[in-house]
Amino acid sequence: MPMLSNLKTIALAGSIGVGFLVQTSPSYAAELDTLTVAGGCFWCVEADFEKVEGVTEAVSGYAGGTAANPTYKQVTSGGSGHYEAVQITFDPDLVSEATLLDIFFRSIDPTDSGGQFCDRGPSYRTAIFATGSQKDVAEQSKAKAQAELGQQVVTPILGEADFYPAEAYHQDYAKGTKIILTRYGPKSQAKAYKAYREACGRDKRIKELWGSAAPFAG
């Protein structure tokens, strides 16, 4: 890769890295913003963005479809038109929309139009739900991601959509202590999530695409 390209990648990785500094507690009441994205399995997107400094909450849910108050079964069966989505609430004084969107593109496979990793079908496609100035920022971030990858980025930037929080058992799934039965035997939700993420190949594929610019793939 040419030296200029390397410098751009290093600079981008540095700007993304700012989002992972140790969190501080502001002494004022911050005015928070939200960003809604779809990146495949919402457990993974939620767990990833909860690690970002400046993010106060990430909620798994559904967006982009026609059914009001959809259930997980309706969404995953493909009948509702909804995506598995995550609504990210953040303090814009600590992390910008642009940084969050740069992180988002580098935490998914934006070249895949049929789902993400092992999860296939309409509900697992990627998308950004934005309007106004947020849409402009998203378009810029998408163009930057496409230039860096040298491949077509198919993640659409859709209009603002109603967001419906998913069922309670989906929230903070990656941290859950409840014991569930898996194909590997009884495991806590947290261990089952870790096994699922590895088996699904999410981090492996992201590292193949983004290398050192991948913010969450260990």
Describe the structure in your own words.
This protein is α+β, with helices and mostly antiparallel strands and 218 residues long. It has a domain at 30-171: Peptide Methionine Sulfoxide Reductase, Chain A (2-Layer Sandwich), CATH 3.30.1060. Helices cover 35% and strands 21% of the residues. It has helices at 3-17, 42-49, 72-76, 97-105, 132-149, 189-200, 202-210, and strands at 33-39, 55-63, 83-90, 115-116, 119-120, 126-129, 157-158, 163-165, 179-182, 185-188. The chain has a 6-stranded mixed sheet. Strands 4-5 form a two-stranded antiparallel sheet. It is globular, with a radius of gyration of 17 Å. Mean pLDDT is 89; it is low at 1-10 and 21-27.
Task: Record keyword descriptors for this entry.
six-stranded mixed sheet; disordered N terminus; globular; single chain; 21% strand; Peptide Methionine Sulfoxide Reductase, Chain A; alpha+beta; 218 residues; two-stranded antiparallel sheet
